Structures are given as structure tokens and as C-alpha cells.
Amino acid sequence: MKLDELINGIQTLGITGHVRPDGDCIGSTLGLYNYVKDNYPEIDVTLYLEEAKDGFSYMSRIDEIVHEMREEDKTAVKDLFIICDCSTLDRIEPFAEVYEHAKKRACIDHHVSNLGDFADVNEVKPEASSTCEVLYELLDESRISKAVAECLYTGIVHDTGVFKYSSTSGRTMAIAGKLMDLGIDFNDIIDNSFYKKSYVQNQILGRALLESVLFYDGKCIFSCIDEPTMKFYNVTGKDLGGVIEQLRLTDGVEVAIFLYQTGADEFKVSLRSKKYIDCATIAMAQGGGGHKRAAGFTAYGKAVEIVNRISDSLSLQFKEYEKTSKEGTLD
Ligand code: AMP
Ligand code: MN
Ligand code: MN
């Protein structure tokens, strides 16, 4: 499929991504928005997305994003609504009503947990590093501006952890290379949107690492930041982005679990693995989703109870892996 076929003849287009947008979510939605603005000036396009963390201000037209639903938005998008980087409809919750009113709906995504069945057109490529990579393939290369390239490059950088996660392929690198050829400032994009941390972000990262606990023979690491701690440092979930990655990097660890509190007895859970634990399966069993090596879900109860809830499926996966690797050594 090409985007051109999808949007041919439409007058109104709505775009959204998932709640708590990350780099790939903002990169793909804003990349698509800029591409349509650049190449289809006759289309009335609106991008609906929650506010992202700081650090993305270099992206063109970021100030045009609608962060909160206005009454007139509910019926504004009549023709086509495109959802990017989102595997289930419950994750577009703030803007679900706009989606309901659109005649045609499309989804562009790369989550394994996306069954590819909720929209009319589903462009879901689980093997792709990022939604930005999937989107790139739908665009006409010769009509990609520097502004669009900055957005797509950002998404690829974020979802590959700067080109190092197992989802990074030769094709990912080739696309990133083509985007670089458009003259983007890739050093600044990587530093400012990915690595840069404010003082309090560093402090809370330190706190999460300090209080982390190893279990399962050092193969699992767990940490949790509760609401009083977040209040003390005056941070929100957006400030906790790098914590799970640092936990995952711990020597000997296969899987990292990080929780932060989002309400009374409510937590956002992130899972990351290195080589063999399938995080998506664990997250999906808890009503969430994601990818093999990175997944998440929202959970209710006390932090310890939540970890206990997933420990059975974790230990099952560990045992299976130990069994198959032992069988392997007998050969
Ligand atoms: P996170 O730990 O929030 O960075 O999420 C890791 C990956 O899992 C991302 O690709 C998310 O889009 C996905 N993910 C996280 N939470 C959920 C959820 N509740 N439902 C579906 N996918 C999720
Ligand atoms: Mn995402
Ligand atoms: Mn993504």
C-alpha cells in the first residue's frame, strides 16, 4: 500500500497515536502530518496527541498538535482517521470519539500485539523497528522534506535505542541513511531528544537504580517509583523514560521490570529483555502489549502483588529457556 492511494480524494484527515506518546509515536504522527501538509495542501488535516515529554521542539509544526478534545473536534474528521504506533483502540482513548465519526479508519503500526483487525486498513509490520520505518515505506521518497525526515529519524532512533535493539535491521539503517542524506542534524536529534536529561530526571533515575532489587539468580531486576517519591522530586511519568533501559543494562540481567504509580493502587509497568524473555506475551496476558523485547501494561494493586502476578509466566519462560539450552549442549 502507498499513502497516496489511502488518502486519494479525501477532504478531512485526522491523525493520532497512543497515550503517553513516545519518540516513535510523536515522530510517526508528526511525520505523517508534515508530509500531508507539504504535499496535499487541499486536505484539512488535524493531529490529535497528548503532550509528549520535552526535547522534541525541533520538530516542524509541533505547536499545531491538538492536545485536548474540543467539542467541535468530535465530528470534524469525516473522511479518514489514521492511528499510528498503536496496537489497540483503548490506547487512543482521549480521541476515540474523533475516530468513531470518521468514515474510514486506518492503522499504521509495528506491535506484535497488534492483531491488525480493528481498522478498515491495517498496515502492521511486526518485523519493522518502528512505526516510522513502516510509514517511510508508504511515502513517496522524492516528496519527503527535511522536516518529515527529522520526525521519522527521531522515531527510528527512539524505538531502536539509537540503532541497537534487536529490531534494528539492514533496512532500518538504509532508511536512516536516506533520511540523513536530507541534511538533518542527527547529532542534535539524538542528544536532545534521546540522551539529554534534566537534573531531576537524573536524580529520579539514581533513586530508581539505588532501590532496584535483583531476583531470579540475578536474571531479573525490579524497581518502582511511587507517587510520594514522584511528588518529592516534582516529576511525572514523562521524566522516567530512561530508567527501564538502565535497569536492563545491568550485568547478568535478562529482564527488567519497572513500575511507576499513576493513581491509587494503579501502576504503569514496563518490561524489557535482552535475549530470550518474550515481554509481549507477559504484557498481553495482563491486558497490555508491545514487542518481544519491550512491552508494557497498566496494573492495579500493590507493586509487590503486581510483580507476583507476572512471576509465574516469567519463571515458566526461564525454565523453558534453561531446558532448551541444556538440550542444546547435549548435542
Ligand atoms: P513502555 O514500557 O511504555 O515504553 O512500552 C514498551 C512498548 O510496549 C511500547 O511499544 C508500547 O507501545 C507498548 N505498550 C506499553 N504499554 C502498553 C499497553 N498498555 N498496551 C499495549 N501496548 C503497550
Ligand atoms: Mn510507541
Ligand atoms: Mn513504536
Short description:
The chain is of the alpha/beta class and 331 residues long. The protein has two domains: 3-195, inorganic pyrophosphatase (n-terminal core), CATH 3.90.1640.10; 199-326, Diaminopimelate Epimerase, Chain A, domain 1.
List the helices and strands and how they pair.
Blueprint: H1 3-7, E1 12-16, H2 23-39, E2 44-48, E3 80-84, H3 96-101, E4 104-109, E5 121-124, H4 131-138, H5 146-159, H6 170-180, H7 186-195, H8 199-210, E6 213-215, E7 220-225, H9 227-233, H10 243-248, E8 255-263, E9 266-273, H11 279-285, E10 289-290, E11 294-300, H12 303-330
Parallel strand pairs: 1-2, 1-3, 3-4, 4-5, 7-8
Antiparallel strand pairs: 6-7, 8-9, 9-11, 10-11
Helix pairs in contact: 2-5, 4-5, 5-6, 5-7
Bound molecules: adenosine monophosphate and manganese (II) ion (MN) (2 copies).
One manganese (II) ion (MN) binds at residues 24, 85, 110, 130-131, 159.
3D structure, described in words:
- The protein has helices at 3-7, 23-39, 96-101, 131-138, 146-159, 170-180, 186-195, 199-210, 227-233, 243-248, 279-285, 303-330, and strands at 12-16, 44-48, 80-84, 104-109, 121-124, 213-215, 220-225, 255-263, 266-273, 289-290, 294-300.
- The chain is globular, with a radius of gyration of 20 Å.
- The chain contains 12 helices and 11 strands.
- Strands 6-7-8-9-11-10 form a 6-stranded mixed beta sheet, sandwiched between helices.
- With 331 residues, the protein is of the alpha/beta class.
- Helix 2 (23-39) packs antiparallel against helix 5 (146-159).
- The chain is 40% helix and 18% strand.
- It folds into 2 domains: 3-195, inorganic pyrophosphatase (n-terminal core) (Alpha-Beta Complex); 199-326, Diaminopimelate Epimerase, Chain A, domain 1 (Roll).
- The model has no long low-confidence stretch (mean pLDDT 95).
- The site of one manganese (II) ion (MN) has 5 residues, from helix 2.
